[in-house]
Amino acid sequence: MYRIPTLLTVLILLLGASPLRAAPFCDPPVLTAVAIEERTPGFTVDAEYPVLCRAEPSRVIRDFVSNTIFDFKKVDPGHDLSVFPHPYELLTRYAVWPTAEGRFVSVKLHVMAYTGGAHPNNWPMTWVFDMADGGEITLNRLFPDREAALDRVSALCRKVLSASLGGMLVPDMLDAGVRPVEDNFKRFILTGEGVAFFFAPYQVAPYAAGEQVVTIPFDHLGGLIAPNIAAAVRAE
Predict the structure, then answer these.
(1) Read out DSSP for the chain?
(2) Quick check: do 21-136 and 138-236 share a fold?
(3) What are phi and psi of 11, to 5 degrees?
(4) Cα–Cα distance between 114 and 103 in angstroms, integer?
(5) Cβ partners under 8 Å of residue 30, min gap 6
(6) What is the sign, positive or negative, of the torsion defined by CA atoms of 214, 219, 225, 228?
(7) Fold type of domain 21-136
(8) Looking at the predicted structure, is the pLDDT value of residue 22 above 60?
(9) Are strands 88-98 and 43-52 parallel, antiparallel or unpaired?
């Protein structure tokens, strides 16, 4: 007697031993972008930021941009060009790096603010979000042994920047900017190559050198990255 295979049996035969892929955490990681434009005789605001596919990270980014705009407007609310003949400006632009399977999404916001002086101030703001729970991957969450990790990261960044800055190298500035303390390395993202650390103008070199970034490959940080994060990154 022959039995008609059930649908489940057919699927098992077709799939064989192939591993089942987990469903993506959310897709696409960026749903849309928000643009804020305001112009008065004394001010220009031109801000953009992403809306991610989870509500928690989107609120964090939105609140940061809103507070930055609020603080910018407080600098000189009555500015009308009568004393200083140039408008004040605030600009933000963003970039997003999802990891291959979407577990982690990194966001970098470039902020430029001009409120007088010889040139604008520029600085990076970064976040790494775990799309499994919407939480932020802080430096402490990335590196359980923060002291050992900062010592390693500091030494590697010093080596790279000492070579790449060339004529812009100012040893005292570099020494201060890469000291193994949390504030010097809190602006980072996760990429396919490793952990990228961003340094604002003046942190490690003169303003003319611009923003600096050092990407440290994951294998150079072996044993220092939190096991659950390292496992997820390796799996991707």
Answers:
(1) -PPPPPHHHHHHHHHTTPPPPPPPSSSSSEEEEEEEEEE-SSEEEEEEEEEESSHHHHHHHHHHHHHHHHHHHHS-TT--SSSSSS-EEEEEEEEEEE-TTSSEEEEEEEEEEESSSSS-EEEEEEEEEETTT--B--HHHH-SSHHHHHHHHHHHHHHHHHHHSGGG--HHHHHHHTSSSHHHH--EEE-SSEEEEEE-TTTSS-GGG--EEEEEEGGGGTTTS-HHHHHHHHH-
(2) no
(3) -65, -40
(4) 36
(5) 50, 51, 52, 53, 96
(6) positive
(7) Heat Shock Protein 90 (3.30.565)
(8) no
(9) parallel
Any idea where the domains of the chain sit in the sequence? 21-136, 138-236
The answer to whether residue 181 scores a pLDDT higher than 70 is: yes
Cα distance between the two ends of the chain: 47
**Class of the CATH domain delimited by 138-236:** alpha beta
Fill in the amino acid letter for 105.
V
Q: How far is CA 85 from CA 42, 82, 105, in A?
A: 9, 6, 42
Q: Are the C-beta atoms of residues 124 and 109 closer than 8 Å to each other?
A: yes
Single out the residue of 148, 41, 24 nearest to residue 86, CA to CA.
Answer: 41
User: What are the tens digits of pLDDT across the range 51-93?
Assistant: 999 999 999 999 999 999 999 999 999 999 999 999 999 999 9
- Asked whether 129 and 122 are in contact (CB, 8 A), the reply is no
Burial class (CB in 10 A: 0-12, 13-18, 19+), 118: exposed
pLDDT digits (tens, 9 = 90+) for 112-144: 999 998 899 999 999 999 999 999 999 999 999
Q: What would the pLDDT profile of 223-233 be if each residue is shown by its tens digit?
A: 999 998 988 88
